[in-house]
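Researcher: I'd like a structural prediction for the single chain below. Treat it as a standalone chain; there are no partners to consider.
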Amino acid sequence: MECLNAKVEAEILALPADMQARLWRIAELLEVWGPHKVGMPYTRHLEGRIWEIRLSGKAGISRVMYAALMDRKLILLRAFVKKTQKTPRQEIDLALRRLKESES
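Model: Treating it as a single chain, here is the predicted structure.
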């Protein structure tokens, strides 16, 4: 699993340490078992090729959106602290844009 670019890496590094630790533990599960074998409560499909890793910690709730690429690689597209019950549409759109940019 890798970050799309330095922006995504900075978003992940901005997450609290306990959430970062959970992210890398779930990333290991995804690499070992594959995205279709790891489900709730760790991951959830959002839309198209976009999935989210669900993180919670002392500071609240965060999400890291990712996609599976054709060469069996998982790429992290967006990390953010979640403030509403539903994942905001603008966050999904940003992840979709980043995925599209990565493929061109």
